[in-house]
From TrEMBL:
This is Signal recognition particle protein. The chain holds residues 1 to 298 of 533 of the full protein. The keyword RNA-binding applies. It comes from Sediminivirga luteola. Involved in targeting and insertion of nascent membrane proteins into the cytoplasmic membrane. Binds to the hydrophobic signal sequence of the ribosome-nascent chain (RNC) as it emerges from the ribosomes. The SRP-RNC complex is then targeted to the cytoplasmic membrane where it interacts with the SRP receptor FtsY. Composed of three domains: the N-terminal N domain, which is responsible for interactions with the ribosome, the central G domain, which binds GTP, and the C-terminal M domain, which binds the RNA and the signal sequence of the RNC. Residues 271-284 form the SRP54-type proteins GTP-binding domain. Its main location: cytoplasm. Belongs to the GTP-binding SRP family. SRP54 subfamily. The lineage of its organism: Bacteria, Bacillati, Actinomycetota, Actinomycetes, Micrococcales. It catalyses: GTP + H2O = GDP + phosphate + H(+). It is found in: Cytoplasm. GO terms for cellular component: signal recognition particle.
Length: 298
């Protein structure tokens, strides 16, 4: 992921290296290269515009003309602005003051929600919590079963509707699950919801209804980094539909160009909180905007 973007940006900076002073023409040539590299990596156009505008303005300011090493200063500016696009600060899970903390997962089918539920449960257990998983994806016949397998692997209790009890009503399942968590002393409830292949009003309404019923502390929108430009419209639709609190980029181990995923935080104004990097339970990390920017600019 990001190798092509990373290579293109380093090549651009190499052209600047050794220049004592940067003329406006040097800056503009650099901005043009950065713009092309970002667009070719699938970064959304409004994000590219805002980004290059901010870099240009700073690159032409005293900050650069008075720097000992102007080209290094430009790299630093690009780094700063990239950190900004990626959400700035590292954002961690907000735990409820009174347990259980409720974490709801939303996203398209195949995005990696169920896999993430297992990863979160595994990680939170290792941190001393007692998470419980809730199967609210009642659309796909196999989804409950899949969550049960994931839960077993992660060593977490899975709450799923009994046949005849709440089947077909994910809102009731979610609500009941919170009560069960309280009596069974689970301090974290992770609610897996249904996804569709495309954005779908009924699905969005259902997710919004679950959100309203259980008032989650976090709503994590899981997005497959491989889906390219569609990532932005999908993220916008989910942001309007369920007002998520954070983004999880999944499949960052793939070879997608990655730019669309990079646009999601900027376009929605919501932070990227986690990155998923494989199918295994531990292939997952807290997302640090500064580390990701350094990795891209390395
Ligand atoms: P859901 O429909 O959103 O619940 O998606 P799943 O969790 O079922 O994931 C869909 C597919 O993507 C499964 O085959 C997962 O093993 C795979 N998957 C999930 N996360 C990752 C990831 O970070 N990297 C890779 N390579 N595969 C993943």
């Amino acid at each position: 992921m990001f190798t092509s973007l990373s290579d293109r940006l380093s090549a651009t900076f190499k052209n600047l290296r050794g220049k004592g002073r940067l003329s406006e023409a040097d800056v503009d040539a650099t901005i043009r290269e950065i713009r092309r590299a970002l667009l070719d990596a699938d970064v959304a156009l409004p994000v590219v515009r805002a980004f290059t505008g901010a870099v240009r303005e700073r690159a032409l300011s005293d900050e650069v003309s008075q720097a000992l090493n102007p080209s290094q200063q430009v790299v630093k500016i690009v780094n700063d602005e990239l950190v900004g696009i990626l959400g700035g600060q590292t954002r961690r899970i907000q735990f409820a003051k009174r347990p259980p903390t409720v974490i709801m997962l939303a996203g398209l089918q195949g995005a990696g929600k169920t896999t993430l539920a297992g990863k979160l449960a595994h990680w939170l257990t290792s941190e001393g919590h007692r998470p419980m998983l809730v199967a609210c994806d009642l659309q796909r016949p196999n989804a409950v079963n899949q969550l049960q397998i994931v839960g077993e692997r992660a060593g977490a209790f899975v709450y799923a509707p009994e046949p005849g009890n709440g089947v077909g009503d994910p809102v009731k399942v979610a609500r009941d699950a919170i009560e069960v968590a309280k009596t069974k002393l689970h301090d974290i409830v992770i609610v897996d919801t249904a996804g569709r292949l495309g954005i779908d009003e009924e699905l969005m309404r259902q997710a919004a209804d679950i959100r309203a019923a259980v008032n989650p502390d976090e709503v994590l929108f899981v997005i497959d980094a491989m889906i390219g430009q569609d990532a932005v419209t999908t993220a916008q639709a989910f942001n309007e539909g369920v007002d998520f609190t954070g983004v999880v980029l999944s499949k960052l181990d793939g070879d997608a160009r990655g730019g669309a995923a990079l646009s999601v935080a900027s376009v929605t104004g919501k932070p990227i909180m986690f990155a998923s990097t494989g199918e295994g339970l531990t292939d997952f990390e807290t997302f640090h905007p500064d580390r990701m920017a350094s990795r891209i600019l390395d």
